[in-house]
Structure formats: structure tokens, C-alpha cells
Design brief:
- The chain is an all-beta fold.
- It has a single domain, classed as Rieske [2Fe-2S] iron-sulphur domain (Rieske Iron-sulfur Protein), CATH 2.102.10.10.
- The strands form 3 sheets. Strands 2-3-4-8 form a 4-stranded antiparallel β-sheet, with no helix packed on it. The protein has a 3-stranded antiparallel β-sheet with strand order 1-10-9, with no helix packed on it. Strands 5-6-7 form a 3-stranded antiparallel β-sheet, with no helix packed on it.
- A hairpin with a 2-residue loop joins strand 5 and strand 6.
- It starts with a strand and ends with a strand.
- It binds FE2/S2 (inorganic) cluster (FES).
- The site of FE2/S2 (inorganic) cluster has 8 residues, from loops.
């Protein structure tokens, strides 16, 4: 299902959070592109928006593992992949395909 999550996209290098059906997500603009993922680290239960963007990954603030913004793969192969979602900026806002 595709849902509208914001009227405007986050500015370059910044994240915006949203929730849908009791799940937390974030959208980030990195190098001019939008990415969306769960706002919960697959390692332990902490918001990834407390971390920071490094290259094309988000780095968790708790133990420092990084998750690729496109594939969701973790820098540590023993940690689960982060769920990522299709996100699109349209004339009237930002849309995400949530599962
Ligand atoms: S809780 Fe995120 S890397 Fe450990």
C-alpha cells in the first residue's frame, strides 16, 4: 500500500519520522535521493534516527553498526537486515510503499 507521509521532503542530510499502524519509520534525503526504512535498529530496540548518516548508510547510535539505506544490509553479517521501503517525491508530497 502506498501512503502519503509528508507534504514536503526532508532537507538534504536530515531525517523525518512517521508512524503507520503502530510501526515507526523514517525518511532521509541523502545525496539528493530519498530513502525510507524502519525506525528501529534490527540489533536492539532503539530508534535509528538517533544515529547518523555515513556515506550511503545509517549508523546506529548504540553499538555503531551501519545499515545500507538501499539494501538494508548490516555491516555485521550476524545482524538482521533493516527493512527498507520504496519512497517517492511527487508534486504534492512524499509517498512510501509500506507493506
Ligand atoms: S542497537 Fe543498533 S547496533 Fe546495537
Amino acid at each position: 500500500m502506498v501512503i502519503k507521509v509528508f507534504d514536503t521532503a526532508p532537507k538534504e542530510g536530515t531525517m523525518k519520522e512517521f508512524s503507520y499502524e503502530n510501526k515507526e519509520y523514517f525518511v532521509v534525503k541523502n545525496n539528493g535521493k530519498l530513502f525510507c526504512a524502519d525506525n528501529k535498529c534490527p540489533h536492539e530496540d532503539i530508534k535509528l534516527t538517533l544515529g547518523c548518516i555515513k556515506g550511503n548508510s545509517i549508523k546506529c547510535s548504540l553499538h555503531g553498526y551501519s545499515f545500507d539505506l538501499v539494501t538494508g544490509s548490516c555491516s555485521d553479517e550476524d545482524v538482521d537486515r533493516l527493512n527498507t521501503y520504496l519512497v517517492e517525491e511527487r508534486n504534492d508530497g512524499v509517498y512510501v510503499e509500506v507493506l
